[in-house]
Specification:
Strand order of the largest sheet: 1-2-3
Distance between the termini: 87 Å
Structural class: alpha+beta
Protein name: Transcription factor zinc-finger domain-containing protein
Order of helices and strands: HEEEHH
Domain Transcription factor zinc-finger: 49-87
InterPro entries: TF_Znf
Pfam families: Zn_ribbon_TFIIB (PF13453)
Length: 112
């Protein structure tokens, strides 16, 4: 006569499923951590770099607004909303006036 516990199979299945879920959750967590680290490393590589030449961008003040200017090619780059701040801070003249007119025409066309 064989002595066997009736719940042995059920216990093994329970712990197998429990371990499988724990491993899956840990894998998901580690994947998320890895993804965040990759994002941060990419951000560090490209943060404040000129899109044209890849050199370092330096923040400078223009009409009370901090703009980004390349140290090498002297390109000027604006964050979202900075152009509007510059245009409202001082009366647009020359290039800025033409740029504002051009952009306002595009915005009016998009609204239709």
């Amino acid at each position: 006569m064989e002595l066997r516990k009736p719940h042995t199979q059920t216990e093994e299945e329970y712990f197998f499923l429990l371990n499988r879920d724990l491993i899956r959750k840990q894998r998901e967590y580690l994947d998320e951590v890895r993804k965040n680290k990759e994002h941060l490393s990419e951000q560090k590589l490209h943060w404040m770099k000129c899109p044209k030449c890849g050199c370092q961008l330096e923040e400078r003040e223009l009409a009370g607004v901090m703009i980004d200017q390349c140290e090498s090619c002297l390109g000027v780059y604006l964050d979202k909303g900075e152009l509007d701040l510059i245009l409202t801070a001082k009366k647009p003249e020359g290039f800025l006036a033409r740029l504002r007119t051009y952009l306002s025409k595009d915005l009016a066309t998009e609204a239709m």
